[in-house]
Amino acid sequence: MAKDQRTQDYVVKRTSEGKSKKEIRRCLRRYVAREIYRVLQNPRPGLLTNDLRPRRLALHLTQTAVALELSAWPKAISRIERGATQDRVLSERYRTWLSEQPKVSA
Q: How far is residue 19 CA from its own chain's centroid?
């Protein structure tokens, strides 16, 4: 309850309502449980990244070369291409960077 600003604000609000620390903790646990349940019942759709590897290979680029350009680890690029991670920011940077690369003729 001491680090997150939203939690601190909540504690101040509930304390002003006359709740004890024990009651506030109970309310916070219930709130977290409801949030987790909501996410489990309504998951976000998965990020489609199955187009990235074929595009990279068509440009004759290695994962290491892409990782150097994007300031990322090669393993992060591999995980995105395989769909093993849902890093939306890096995936979008990767997709944008690939689209900016000149086409390579075979």
A: 35
Low-confidence ranges of the chain (pLDDT < 50): none
pTM exceeds 0.70: no
pLDDT at 42: 86
For residue 104, which amino acid is it?
V
Give CA 65 to chain center in angstroms.
23
The 8-class DSSP code of residue 19 comes to -
Which amino acid, 19?
A: K
Say which residues have a Cβ less than 8 Å from residue 84's Cβ, sequence separation at least 6.
Answer: 78
The per-residue pLDDT for 94 is 95
Distance, CA of 74 to CA of 66 (rounded, Å): 8
> Which residue, chain included where needed, has tokens 């219930």?
30
The span from the CA of 1 to the CA of 67, in Å, is 38
